[in-house]
């Protein structure tokens, strides 16, 4: 998986560099520089979507053992930063989320089960999100031809998610633990296998509560829709006003594409290519579309980078505490 992530990172950076070179560094960065400090407002209008993601995640814990809101918000912030800035194939951040809330008092079983189901919720929310963008292609009568591959991609994504849910409901953790027990002979592996079975039971309970699960998908999807304001406002700052529906279509199709091609960290190059392709349908020039994509990445510096540093600080303190205890 790590080899795939690093290969994806290299491929994405190559695509990004080629796009910027082909369409002109100077024109793209001129647009960014002439917009001034107003672009710093973009992470602010994006930030509420993180709150909606917390609303979603809170529903994936047993009601009597729901962690405090601030713990979920902090771990979600740091987990997202890891997935965004590090080549971890969007998995490393989920593991960090589970570890962080465990450090803050949540049981490992509840943390593991909630993160596993939350990953399914994240994927499922892409289906209505992608359908919204595809519907707007028809509604705005922009280009029906691009809608066909979009529908095929969403359908394939739905099939993959369905398979992932079936595997979870069949007891994925237990099967993995029992398989690994054939190769690992440590004395405490039996307890790990027992915990895996408990995780599977909690996962099944979460899926049985269909109302809470559906509500979790709803909050995630609503959070994705809220990110549209970032694109709309960036276009306004660049002097190319578009409607909210057009911004919704642009954000939906590009972010769905980014998530489908998950093995390229942070969708480097993929996001930019998507903005160029979909932006052309809205009359945007390639250099404008690339500047727009880079403007939305400002939050990676102002929100994600601090999150990554905060995670490093917490893990560093844990390491030093263990070292002191050992000595």
C-alpha geometry: globular
Mean pLDDT figure: 82
Helix content: over 70%
Query: What is the count of DSSP helices, taking H or I runs of 4+ residues?
Result: 16
Largest sheet: none
N-C termini distance? 35 Å
How many domains would you count in the coordinates? 1
Q: Would you count the extended β strands for me?
A: 0
- Which blocks of ≥5 consecutive residues have pLDDT under 50? 177-193
Overall description:
It contains 16 helices and no strands. It is globular and about 55 Å long. Helix 2 packs across helix 15 (286-296) and helix 7 (108-139) packs across helix 13 (244-260). The chain has 327 residues and is mostly helical. 79% of the residues lie in helices and 0% in strands.
Task: Write a brief structural summary.
With 327 residues, this protein is an all-alpha fold.
Could you list some keywords that capture this structure?
327 residues, globular, 16 helices, 0% strand
Task: Please write out the topology.
Elements: H1 2-23, H2 25-34, H3 42-46, H4 48-58, H5 69-85, H6 92-103, H7 108-139, H8 147-169, H9 172-181, H10 189-208, H11 210-226, H12 228-237, H13 244-260, H14 270-281, H15 286-296, H16 298-326
Helix pairs in contact: 2-15, 4-5, 4-11, 5-6, 5-16, 6-7, 7-8, 7-10, 7-11, 7-13, 9-10, 12-13, 13-14, 14-15
């Amino acid at each position: 998986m790590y080899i795939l992530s690093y290969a994806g990172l290299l491929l994405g950076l190559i695509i990004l560099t080629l796009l910027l070179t082909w369409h002109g560094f100077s024109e793209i960065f001129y647009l960014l520089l002439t917009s001034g400090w107003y672009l710093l407002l973009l992470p602010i209008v994006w930030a509420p979507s993180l709150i909606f993601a917390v609303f979603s995640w809170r529903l994936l814990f047993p009601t009597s053992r729901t962690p405090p809101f601030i713990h979920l918000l902090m771990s979600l912030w740091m987990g997202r930063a890891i997935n965004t800035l590090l080549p971890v194939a969007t998995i490393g951040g989920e593991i960090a989320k589970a570890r962080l809330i465990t450090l803050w008092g949540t049981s490992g079983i509840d943390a593991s089960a909630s993160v596993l189901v939350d990953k399914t919720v994240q994927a499922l929310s892409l289906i209505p999100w992608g359908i919204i963008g595809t519907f707007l292609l028809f509604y705005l009568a922009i280009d029906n031809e691009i809608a066909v591959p979009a529908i095929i991609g969403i359908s394939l994504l739905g099939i993959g998610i369905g398979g992932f849910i079936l595997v979870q409901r069949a007891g994925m953790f237990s099967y993995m633990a029992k398989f690994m027990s054939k190769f690992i002979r440590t004395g405490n592996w039996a307890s790990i296998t027992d915990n895996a079975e408990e995780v599977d039971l909690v996962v099944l309970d979460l899926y049985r509560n269909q109302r809470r699960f559906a509500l979790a998908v709803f909050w995630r999807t609503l959070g994705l829709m809220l990110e549209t304001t970032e694109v709309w406002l960036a276009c306004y700052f660049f002097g190319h006003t578009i409607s909210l529906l057009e911004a919704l279509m642009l954000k939906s199709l590009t972010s769905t594409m980014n998530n489908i091609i998950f093995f390229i960290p942070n969708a480097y190059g993929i996001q930019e290519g998507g903005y160029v392709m979909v932006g052309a349908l809205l009359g945007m020039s390639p250099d404008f579309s690339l500047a727009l994509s880079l403007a939305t990445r400002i939050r990676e510096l102002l929100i994600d980078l601090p999150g990554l540093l905060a995670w490093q600080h917490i893990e560093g303190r844990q390491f030093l505490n263990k070292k002191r205890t050992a000595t």
